[in-house]
Structure formats: C-alpha cells, structure tokens
TrEMBL record:
Annotated HTH lysR-type domain residues: 1-58
Protein name: DNA-binding transcriptional LysR family regulator
GO molecular function, one term: DNA binding
UniProt keyword list: DNA-binding, Transcription, Transcription regulation
Similarity annotation: Belongs to the LysR transcriptional regulatory family.
C-alpha cells in the first residue's frame, strides 16, 4: 500500500475536505484528488464520495480511516521511542564491576543516573577484574569498572580515582600499627582473594618483583568485604583497598601494617571496548560520572 497516499487519505478523512487537506499538507487540490484516486485504484475500493463541497467516507473509507489512524499513531510512537534512544532517554545500561566500585561508588552513581533517566533499564553485575574484562569484550555489558591497571589492547581506559593498597591485620595483632619490611609481613598467614582478583595478582607480582617467597595462604575467600571480615575476626593479613577500610581503620576495628620504603597504588578505572561507538546511554553515564568527580 502506498503510505504517502494513505497519509493524504487520513488527512482528508479527518478534515472532511479536499481543500482544507491540501492547505494543511501544502499540496494542490488536484494532487490530493489524484492520490485519493490512486489509493482507491490500488485497493479496488471506493473510499470517498462527494457531498457538496465536502467529501463523505464510504463504509470501506470509514474502516480504512480508523485503521490508518492507528497506523500513524503507532508510527509517531515509534519515532518518539527512537528519538528517546537517540538522546539516551530510553534503552539499557549494563555495567560489570569489581567489588570495590560496586560497594563504594557505583550504587550512588547508578541511582543518580536512574533518577535523571528513569526510562533506562540499569543492570549492574559483579565479578573479578578478569570476569569484568571478559564480559566487556563479549558484549555482555556496555562498560566495566575495575581496580587495577588494564593492559588489554582491545579496551579503552578512563582512570577515575587513585586508590592505595595497604596490608591490614586485626586489632591487637603484633604487626598492627608498625612499619616493617615486606619480607616480615610475608611470613604471616594470609587471607587470599579468589583467582582472577586484581589484588591477588598484585600481591603475587609484588613478591616476584622483590624476589620474596609468596606468603602462606591461610584462607582463600571470594569477595573484598568477606576478606576484610576474616581479618577483622582475628585471622592473618590481607592486602586491601585503603578506600574500602577507611571507616574500620578510623574506628580501630582493624589496624594497618606499613611497609618500609613502599607505597602501593591502584587506579579505579572505567573501561570501554576500543573502536566501538558508545550508545547514548553510555555517553550520558560517562558525562555524569566525570561531572561527579569534578564537583
């Protein structure tokens, strides 16, 4: 069916006049009449009859007018939704994050984003840095937040925050509050994070760099908060984000072990697929995050 002719017919059905329809559509009257005749010919049905200066719809014309109105209302709705997607006001945002960002910063950012863009479907998944990179590269998520250096050539990285890594022990531990050598702290039993964790990789690479034997794994725990709780309960040493344990240190529930002549940092970064255009939803989120960090 010729949609141009159908659109003209719909206007004629609404106004009841070829003259007014021609004026509204910025067409000549003969052009409007010709399109009506072409549509009738295409459908093999009489759609309009003359009634003085006005037109009257036939039964077929009445039915077509109702259906065409539905059709063009749907077209307008589709155009509206496409416009909302184009401007980032409708669609989805999927994020994978390592535990620190998912605990400390992303819930607030995602809540603010959702309030600003209520029609966006927001999902956040958690995993190790390895899992986050894997989900990003297989298109399971749109962006990823990790607490580690990223050397993946297929990923663009935006560093957001510089975090410090520290060794922690329970309150009253014999190393608590002291400054010791790395070799000394490595002799203690450790609470290890799960395989794939950036913190675990950092601990192993640190031992390799300093030619020190890796510490004894006392407990292997999946999750940052769970690792902190194990140390807090009185077992061993853990390498954790200072940002994650700031409140516990200030309240004296755990203690820090300083390492002589050593300062360990890690970036909290936003990662995106390289050479893959970001959706409007992602662009809006990144803009909001940058504004949050500069305010």
């Amino acid at each position: 069916m010729n949609l141009h002719a159908l659109r003209i017919f719909t206007e004629v059905a609404k106004t009841g006049s070829v003259t007014r329809s021609a004026e509204n559509l910025l067409l000549s009257q003969p052009a409007v009449t010709a399109q009506l005749r072409n549509l009738e010919k295409e459908l093999a049905l009489k759609l309009v009859t003359l009634n003085g200066r006005n037109i009257q719809l036939t039964e077929a014309g009445e039915t077509l007018a109702v259906e065409s109105k539905r059709l063009f209302s749907l077209e307008a709705e589709i155009e509206k939704k496409m416009g909302e997607i184009l401007t980032g006001h409708q669609g989805s945002l999927r994020v994978c994050s390592t535990q620190l960002p998912s605990m400390k910063i992303l819930p607030r950012w995602l809540a603010q984003y959702k309030k600003k863009y209520p029609m966006i479907n927001v999902q956040m998944f958690k995993g190790s840095s390895q899992v986050a990179m894997s989900q990003l590269l297989d298109y399971s998520v749109d962006i990823a937040f990790v607490c580690s250096e990223v050397y993946e050539e297929k990923v663009d990285v935006i560093p957001l925050i510089r975090d410090t890594l520290i060794f922690i022990v329970s309150r009253g531990h014999h190393l608590g509050g002291r400054s010791v050598s790395l070799a000394t702290v490595m002799k203690e039993p450790f609470v290890f994070r799960e395989k794939g964790s950036a913190t675990r990789k950092k601990l192993v690479s640190l031992c390799e760099r300093e030619s020190i034997q890796e510490p004894k794994m006392g407990i292997e725990i999946e999750g940052l908060s769970e690792s902190i709780e194990a140390v807090k309960a009185g077992y061993g040493v853990a390498l954790v984000s200072e940002f994650a344990v700031k409140d516990l240190l200030e309240s004296g529930q755990i203690e820090k072990v300083s390492i002589q002549n050593m300062h360990l940092e890690q970036p909290i970064s936003l990662c995106m697929r390289k050479n893959d255009p970001n959706s409007p939803m992602v662009k809006n989120f990144i803009t909001m995050v940058k504004e949050e960090l500069t305010n």
